[in-house]
Amino acid sequence: MNDLELLRRYEQEQCEDAFAELVNRHLDLVYSVAMRQVRSPELAEEIAQSVFMILARNAAKMKPDTILTAWLYRVTRRAAIDLTRAESRRRLREEAAQNLAELTVEAPDWTNIEPLLDEAIEHLDHLDRSAILLRFFENKSLREVGQILGTSEDAAQKRVSRAVDQLRSCFSKRGVAVAGPGLTALLSANAVQAAPAGLGTGICASALMGGFHTSGTLTIAKTIAMTTTQKTLLTASIAALAVGAGVHEGRRISNLQNQLQALHQQQEPLAAELQETRRRRDEATNQLQLAQDQIQELRRDVAELPKLRSENTGWRNSARELAQSKAAQAQQESDPTEAMAKVWAVQVKQLKERLDQWPEKKIPELKFVSDQDWFDAVGQANTLQTDADFRQALERLRRKAKNDLVPMVQQAFEKYTDANGGQLPANLSQLQAFLDPSVDNAILQRYQLLQTGKLSDVPPNQPLIAEKAPVDDEYDTIYMIMMRGTAVADGKGWKLPKDSSQTAGQ
After folding, report:
1. Is 54 exposed, middle or buried (0-12, 13-18, 19+ CB in 10 A)?
2. Among 57, 113, 407, 417, which residue has the fewest nearby CB atoms (within 10 Å)?
């Protein structure tokens, strides 16, 4: 049965065994929290007794979603604070902590953490505090923590880790630095102390007696108040501890001296072993560095494999094309016409592939050229071997494409001026509606308008539009379109093309 089921059974059936099971489950938690607050076993026992009496009286008021571990922790802490305030908590805790610290052998980290632990836990939110208490104070597995909190095991793990990080942050602000794994180990080993034997039996009897008389006039303050005899015993205990502190300190110093002497005797073999360990470490470091260098070299070789494969494939393709070209030339000797057509077909393929490799050499007007235009472009070249051969062939192809564009632009200018009283467009975008649909905006963006105003005011031999820049500075010229012809421009000015069939006067 879980905690709430046991509590309901005690409330409804007055079952003492159910309440005793609750006490056995949570007594160590309550006693440890109280002990950390008051630093006195007698006071911690009274606080534990009071807490379970409060539990017995409030059994009927517990909500169904109550986590009893967290509830007991909060009630214990409040009860301890009330008691220590009433009995000069600060003076008693400082004196008891000073004397008990000399009599208790604990890990140095826990000595620093223990006085701050409960205050740090108090700063956590409800679910994080419950996760810490269930995991380290109740020694629950992560699966059990998840079941109690209503989450999965993974979610419980994350919540516990987050709560541990928050505790570390609190300790760090108080000047105590501890690593996450170290804090987890310290909490697992020291968070809960075993309560004195027989304390549970007395608590059950007292709590049940108080629980069955809920209408009585006893209050929590009266229940946990110390008797005069208990105060006298506590004062005598503190005095005895103060008297024995000097004897204990002398014994502790003597033991430390003996341990120091033993450590000196062990120092020489440990120093030799340390030197050998360092030598092996340096040797291993050198071997590791050598292995890393070899791995890095292998990685560079592997990274270059795709490039080498690509180059190998390119050489193979070039060799294949060269063999095809030679075969075509050999066949040309027996059948010149057919052989030349095959050679040109191979060269057209090579020219298209080279154009794909040079996207900056493309212009959108190339959509107008035909297959015959490609053959004409390579047919005018003796051979296509160097980059210059390909660039010249592409210049001839671009020139043919721009020649195909000329009549469409001239017709668009005529239609526009007819529709606008002889007025020229202010920009080329106004000409779009009068152009063939194949002349898109990408083509128009390559040209700039040179003339505006009335068409009748523009001399016939003056260009209307021109390319903004040549595609290939070495082989191309700037192409210019007039109403009755074309012209080209270079660094010395513009002139009619030598191979153009149109003139400015036509």
Report:
1. buried
2. 407
Q: Is the dihedral of CA 300, 305, 306, 311 positive or negative?
A: positive
Which residues of the chain have a pLDDT value below 50? Answer: 97, 100-108, 213-248, 498-506
Q: In this predicted structure, what is the pLDDT of residue 264?
A: 65
Q: Which domain holds residue 96?
A: 3-246
Is 303 inside any structural domain?
Answer: no
CA distance 357 to 363: 14
DSSP secondary structure letter of residue 212: T
Q: How far is Cα 90 from Cα 37, in angstroms, rounded to an integer?
A: 10
Look up tokens 């922790």; give the residue. Answer: 73
In a domain, 319, yes or no: no
Model pLDDT, residue 484: 85
pLDDT at 201: 78
Phi and psi angles of residue 478, each rounded to the nearest 5 degrees, phi first: -80, 125
Number of structural domains the chain divides into: 2
Examine the fold and report which residue of 191, 216, 246 is the final residue of a domain before the chain moves on.
246
Q: What is the pLDDT of residue 124?
A: 93
pLDDT of residue 161: 93
pLDDT for 190 equals 85
Q: What is the DSSP letter of 474?
A: T
Among 190, 217, 246, the domain boundary falls at 246
Is residue 318, in this structure, part of any structural domain at all?
A: no
How would you list the strands of the sheet with 465-467, edge to edge? 447-449, 465-467, 478-482, 485-490, 493-495
- pTM: predicted TM-score of the whole model, two decimal places: 0.35
Q: How far apart are CA 370 and CA 390, in angstroms?
A: 18
Task: For residue 230, count other CB atoms closer than 10 A to its CB.
Answer: 14
DSSP state, 60? G
